[in-house]
Amino acid sequence: MVVGFVAGATGFTGKALVAALAQGGHAAVAHVRPDSRDLAHWQEYFGALGAQVDTSPWQAEALAETLKNRRVTHVFCCVGTTRARMKAQGAAQNSYEAVDYGLPKMLAEAAAKAGCVTRYVYLSSLGAGPGAKGAYLQWRWRAEEAVRGAGVAWTVARPSFITGQRDQERTSEAVAAKIADGVLGAIGALGATTVRDRYRSTNDARLARALLRIGLDPAFANQVVLSDELQR
Ligand SMILES: NC(=O)c1ccc[n+]([C@@H]2O[C@H](COP(=O)([O-])OP(=O)(O)OC[C@H]3O[C@@H](n4cnc5c(N)ncnc54)[C@H](OP(=O)(O)O)[C@@H]3O)[C@@H](O)[C@H]2O)c1
Known about the structure:
Blueprint: E1 3-7, H1 12-23, E2 27-31, H2 39-49, E3 52-54, H3 60-69, E4 74-77, H4 83-89, H5 96-114, E5 119-123, H6 135-148, E6 154-158, E7 162-163, H7 171-189, H8 193-199, E8 202-203, H9 204-216, E9 223-226, H10 227-230
Parallel strand pairs: 1-2, 1-4, 2-3, 4-5, 5-6, 6-9, 7-8
The structure holds NADP nicotinamide-adenine-dinucleotide phosphate (NAP).
């Protein structure tokens, strides 16, 4: 029996992933931070999907206990901050180091300690790598390295832009994705379909289905999965 634990469940991809788990007939646990101002809303929202809500604090011991007690088999980490969050909610607490690196690392170590987790799927980003440019992709790379070294079977997913109907529209991301898809469409028409497939955008539902598929498939254990595979 698959018991999927989704960290970042309240986010754009996380919500779709909880839905995909539940629709697939799996037990779904949506992690919501305990101090969430919208906890009642999330209880109702995830309850309607047939998922459970977990509000364990972001502390290594507590998370390991939770994963063990709930007999979680698959952990999906979809957390991430933004520059807007840093500005609005405090730069230190919401930095890439604290969130994009610190939380996936803590959760991977907790998953290893719990002993019941057979796969840890980390949602990273296309462009993450040792020589990546910019703080966001550099911290993503460090998080990937921490996940790979945690002692649990892992899968790292690196999607390109994630588009779709967000609660709060991110105009710059949507525009960038449209431009990229337009350019890539032209490139594809010229025959470079590999390049087009690697960089074109995906959407929340398609990405969620792909994360679930690669998380359950033994062939993707300890593999980095790029954007084109996540389009299938
Ligand atoms: N958007 C893109 O085009 C794109 C492309 C490639 C990769 N990615 C990566 O994919 C991931 C998911 O993207 P998304 O668009 O689904 O993200 P999103 O909608 O912004 O969701 C982010 C999630 O992280 C949680 N979170 C943020 N700061 C936190 C903190 N300090 N403590 C605990 N939880 C925190 C949020 O919880 P609350 O709701 O409680 O704040 C939310 O559940 C991100 O990490 C992103 O970097 C995104």
